[in-house]
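Dear support,

I submitted the protein below through the web form. The confirmation email said the job was done, but the results page showed an empty box. After a refresh the structure appeared. I'm attaching both so you can tell me whether what I see now is the final result or a partial one.
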Amino acid sequence: MRDRLARTTLCLPTTFFPSSTKGVSMKRFLAATAFALLPALSMAQAEYNLRWAHYLPDGPFLEVENQFAKNVEQRTNGKVKINATYAGGLGNVSEILALAGRGAVDFATAPAGYYPDRLPLWKASQLPFVFESPKQAIETLQTLRKEFPSFDAEMKKMGIRFLFQQPLGSYYFLGNQAGCDTLAGINGKKVRAFGADIPKIVSAAGGVPVTLSTTEMYEGLQRGVVDYANADVGNLASLKLYEVGNKICGPIMTFTGHMMAVSDRTWTRLPKEYQDIIAEEAAAAQQRYLEWVDANNQKAIGVINEAGIEIVPFNPDDMAKWKAAAPDLIEGWVRESAKRGQGDEAAKIAARWRELLAQ
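What the results page shows now:
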C-alpha cells in the first residue's frame, strides 16, 4: 500500500462571495468561512492515512485498541491516522494478517489460531487447557517472545510486525439447552470450534466440533448450526449472544486473544519518530489490557445478569475428567513443529513454557 499524503484543495466559486458587503462585515464573513472549513483543514494535516482491518464489530470490547489508534493520532499531531474497518469489512479473519503482510492493509487484528500454518509458534499461545488465567497467558507469551527470537522471525517471514496481544477472558459455553455444565450435557452436542486445537478439546468431551468464526456464532445459534457456541464473557456481551442462548456455563478454558500487527511495508516507510510513538503506544496498550481484562469481564457479566441470565459453574469433577481425557496439546504442538523442521526449537520453547506454567 502506498503512503497517502492527504491533500485537500479548498476551492470556492466566485459566486460564493457577495458582490456587496452592505450590512455585513467582511472580516466577520471571512472568519465564519474559515471556521466552517476547520474540519477540512484538520483532515488535510494527516500525512499517513493508514487502513486497519479488524475482524470484530466495533464496541466496548475493543476500547483499548481504539484508544491506541487515537493516542497515535494525538501524539503525531494528526499526522498519522489509523482508520479502522470493523467486522471483516476489509477481509475475513483468516486472511487479514496476510493482507497486511502484502501491504494491502496497514494494520490488522486477528487471532493467531486462524493461521496455524503460517504462525505455528504464535498459535501455541492459543492452546486451550494450558493456561490458568488471562494474565498468565499474556505474561508467558511475553517471556517466550523475549527469550526466543524465532517468534518475531516467524512474523517477519509473513511480512508483519507484532504490536500487542489481547489478554482474552476465559471462555464460556452458551446455548439454549441446559447441560453445558457437565460432560454428559456436552456429549453428542454440536459445539462451536475454530483453529486446529479447540476441535480436539471438544471431541475429548464427546462433543461434535463445528467450525464457526466469532461473527458467525449469533446466526449459528439462531439456525441450530451449533447447540453451544463459546467465547469469553466480553464477546458474549458485546455480540449480544445471550439473546440467542440463555444457558451459559463456565469458565471452560483460557488462552490469549487476538493480536495487533502492522505491515512491515508500512512500518519501513514511516519516519522513525512515528515508529517510536507507535511502539510506545503499543507497549502502553499491552499494559492497559492487563489492567482492563478483569474489569471488563465483570462489566460483561453484569450485562448478562441484567438480561436475566445466571452463569452456571462447570462441574469441577467433570472438568478434571475432561482435562485428563484431552490430549497434551503442548506435546502435540512440538510433534507438529518437528514435521516442519522446527522440532528442536519447539522442544526448547516447550520446556521453558512448562517451567513458566509451574511458577
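Response: this is the final, complete result; the empty box was a page-load delay. The longest strand covers residues 48-54.
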